[in-house]
Specification:
The complex is a heterodimer of chains A (454) and B (150). Chain A has 15 helices and 22 strands. By secondary structure, chain A is an alpha+beta fold. In chain A, helix 4 packs antiparallel against helix 5, helix 7 crosses helix 8 and helix 12 runs antiparallel to helix 13. In chain B, 0% of the residues lie in helices and 39% in strands. The chains are: A alpha+beta (454), B mainly beta (150).
Chain lengths: 454, 150
């Protein structure tokens, strides 16, 4: 029976975990860096141990100090939150060998899904669609053209040694493919010293739609619906919602089943998320599995009414999931805005500093998950997210209007935030019509005058 | 506290200090520091009903005087673990009041995950007192020894 949990994280997620533990009657131990002494969760936890200096590498990533703290405080379990050590298979293994329950999947599942190539291979064998591609680099042009035709145009030619969007060329037909193939090889050779390339289907303006999984240690695997996270800037999510305005109930059923198959293939336990890309025609492709609780979990909580953090703890305690797939209802429409201490008008430059007046919105259908308060000094050592605003209602229209209303009430003085930007998005016809894909943010920023979101 | 006219109340005993002050809105602000009789290093200040402003931020190091005395420096813990004053229960303590230390002098052992780590003073001077009892858990940055510089 878990009686004390060490929270190996900080900020809003650490506060979230403290709250869930309080409601379950479980004692909490906060481990913190010297930069987080005044952090809200450190003050609210039952016990607190300083584990290092401000830098993450000297504190929140120090598995040795965290486990040491767990031992001297005699904890039963560690909740790793998201980021930091949450997807570190070695850390999960260390917990296992020290007889401390890691609140998450087994270390072998983390390892399997952490290797993108192994993950794709594993789910492919389970009949989950992946992005069609050449399995590895192509030897020559003849083979490459064959592969491209088999995959189906448009295709993207990627450098094996590449990354960061470099060394990629797109081809829409056989004729352009021949040219792009050689250009890609030459570019790759010059940029990375390795001209090897592989081919994948190019998915134009996909939507990012992910499915929440809950699996207990008794073999039951369920999905709690999807979250549409297409509104992203440089692969950083800004707004998430559930249900997705794009999915039909048929597609939801199909994708939900595929998500469960993927989780079962990984012998998964606890909470996890299966990420898919979905094209305009409704074809979906597995891209990766996140073997941890996610930032945007409240969207699913408000949509389904299920407390995911509590479920994580109950599952870690060895309990069976008390409900079945048919019991899960998607009753509300929920929208989350990540509130970041950044200046959207100046290319999202981080804005750490002291919060002056802080007033969070409230009322029917408004939830704020934040560790901020008046006078809080935002440390510069960690990510810029200072909170999440989740608004929900019976329809998407209500959720949109409520989000706009709540953002208008939200006061965070002394720093710049993404609030004005998210307000502008709530008023944007493309977003209102549910037409946002992963290409949305770039398009929105280019057609919106900066003074509208500062 | 509310029933009396008192707005501030302080108690100081050996190894224990308690100070209660009425905050602006009438809610009490409590701060306590426990010395070497604590079982556990706990964060020193407790957040009251109102949010903390930066002007009332408390210092992170538990135990030890609030004001810095002249010429006094501290040996601080570089890790999380259990503090031992000697190599074994039968051995003499590495550092007592009056012991002269240099940067490389061994002052204590901190056990972390079954490994006994020898801790060096990293400062030069004379030990005034040990601030943690033998066998007590310590956190990163915790003051272990009060040392007079020189």
């Amino acid at each position: 029976m878990i009686q004390k949990i060490l929270i190996a994280n900080r900020g809003e997620i650490a506060l979230r975990i403290v709250r869930a533990c309080r409601e379950l009657g479980i004692k909490t131990l906060a481990v913190y860096s010297e930069a987080d002494v005044q952090s809200l969760h450190v003050q609210l936890a039952d016990e607190a141990i300083c584990i290092g200096g401000p830098k993450s590498a000297d504190s929140y990533l120090r598995a040795d100090r965290i486990i040491s703290a767990a031992e001297i405080a005699d904890v039963d379990a560690i909740h790793p939150g998201y980021g930091f050590l949450s997807e570190n298979a070695k850390f999960a293994e260390q917990c296992e060998s020290c007889n401390i329950k890691f609140i998450g999947p087994k270390s072998k599942s983390i390892k399997m899904m952490g290797d993108k190539a192994v993950a794709k291979d594993t789910v492919k064998k389970a009949g989950v669609p992946i992005v069609p591609g050449s399995d590895g680099p192509v030897e020559n042009e003849t083979e490459a053209v064959k592969v491209a035709r088999k995959i189906g145009y448009p295709v993207i030619i990627k450098a094996v040694a590449g990354g960061g969007g470099r060394g990629m060329r797109i081809a829409h037909n056989d004729i352009s493919f021949a040219k792009e193939y050689h250009v890609a090889r030459n570019e790759a050779e010059k940029a990375f010293g390795n001209g090897a390339v592989y081919i994948e289907r190019y998915i134009e303006k996909p939507r990012h739609i992910e499915f929440q999984i809950l699996a207990d240690s008794h073999g039951k695997v369920l999905h709690l619906g999807e979250r549409d996270c297409s509104v992203q800037r440089r692969h950083q999510k800004l707004i998430e919602e559930s249900p997705s305005p794009f999915l039909t109930s048929d597609l939801r059923k199909k994708m939900g089943k595929a998500a469960i198959r993927a989780a079962e293939a990984a012998a998964y336990e606890n909470a996890g998320t299966i990420e898919f890309l979905v094209d305009a025609k409704g074809n979906f492709y597995f891209i990766e599995m996140n073997t941890r609780i996610q930032v945007e979990h409240p969207v699913t909580e408000e949509c389904t009414g299920i407390d995911l953090i509590k479920q994580q703890i109950l599952i870690a305690n060895g309990e069976k999931l008390s409900f079945d797939q048919g019991d899960i209802k998607f009753e509300k429409h929920a929208i989350e805005c990540r509130i970041n201490a950044e200046d959207p008008a100046r290319n999202f430059a981080p804005s750490p500093g002291t919060i002056g007046l802080y007033y969070a919105p409230g009322g029917h259908g408004v939830r704020v998950d934040s560790h901020a308060y008046s006078g809080y000094v935002i440390p510069s050592h960690y990510d810029s997210m200072i909170g999440k605003l989740i608004c929900f209602g019976t329809t998407r229209k209500v959720a949109l209007e409520r989000t706009y209303r709540a953002l208008s009430e939200y006061i965070i003085r002394g720093i710049k935030t993404t609030i004005p930007l998210q307000k502008a998005i709530m008023s944007d016809p493309v977003f209102i019509e549910g037409k946002a894909t992963t290409a949305y943010m770039e398009d929105f920023m280019s057609r919106t005058p900066p003074d509208l979101f500062s | 506290m509310k029933r009396s006219e008192l707005s501030e109340f302080a108690v100081e005993e050996e190894g224990f200090k308690l100070k209660i002050r009425r905050g602006g809105s009438g809610a009490p602000l409590v701060s306590s520091s426990r010395g070497s009789n604590s079982d556990f290093p706990v964060n020193e200040s407790v957040l009251a009903a109102q949010p903390v402003t930066s002007s009332t931020a408390t210092s992170p190091a538990p135990a030890g005087p609030a004001k810095e005395e002249e010429g006094i420096i501290y040996v601080k813990s570089p890790m999380v673990g259990t503090f031992y004053r000697a190599a074994s229960p039968e051995s003499k303590a590495f550092a007592e009041t009056g012991t002269k230390v240099t940067e490389t002098s061994l002052v204590c052992i901190i056990e972390a995950m079954k490994i006994m780590n020898e801790i060096q003073a990293e400062i030069k001077g004379t030990v005034v007192e040990a601030l943690v009892e033998n066998g007590q858990p310590v956190e990163y940055g915790q003051r272990l020894f009060k040392v007079k510089q020189g």
